[in-house]
Design a protein that fits this description.
Layout lengths: L3 H15 L8 H18 L4 H10 L2 H6 L5 H16 L4 H13 L9 H17 L10 H11 L5
Helix pairs in contact: 1-3, 2-3, 2-7, 3-6, 5-6, 6-7
């Protein structure tokens, strides 16, 4: 039996192969990076790392497929629901958790449920570690500092 995260990864790989490389050509790398950071944070926080990985893999699915970043969290949540329902790899409760986290991941200045916060923080880590010499994205500084404290890292 195929593992559900691998089933989702294969599906996303197919979407990437069938999708043109538009303005957001880098987004696939970012999605996989966020999924890794999400899994790590879930393990650190005793949360479900499979659910966290799926959130990371799907959090920017709208940007990938539509080549458009506007309102991507809300549209991405809808697309994630469609994909996960078609693949039939999550329970109803897990589906709601994943879709809520995707919908909230861009509202970095608000606080939501633990998986939404995890999605935001995995996104922040991916942005930062893409190139640590770049300026920190505005609005992500406080989350990044808290993450550094949680993970025992020093800021530059």
């Amino acid at each position: 039996m195929e593992h559900r995260v691998e089933k989702l990864r294969k599906h996303i790989d197919e979407l990437i192969q069938n999708n043109h490389r538009g303005t957001f050509w880098f987004i696939e790398r970012h999605m996989f990076s966020v999924s890794s950071f999400a899994a790590m944070l879930a393990m650190k926080r005793n949360l479900n790392s499979e659910i966290a990985t799926m959130i990371g893999l799907l959090h920017d699915i709208h940007t990938l497929l539509a080549d458009n970043h506007e309102n991507h969290a809300a549209f991405g949540s809808l697309k994630a629901r469609e994909i996960l329902s078609a693949l039939d790899i999550v329970s109803d409760e897990e589906l709601e958790t994943i879709c809520a986290a995707i919908q909230h991941h861009s509202t970095k200045n608000s606080v939501h449920d633990v998986y939404s916060e995890l999605a935001k923080e995995a996104d922040v880590l991916s942005h930062y570690f893409f190139n640590t010499s770049l300026p920190i994205i505005e609005g992500e500084e406080m989350r990044l500092e808290k993450l550094f404290d949680e993970l025992g890292l020093r800021s530059k």
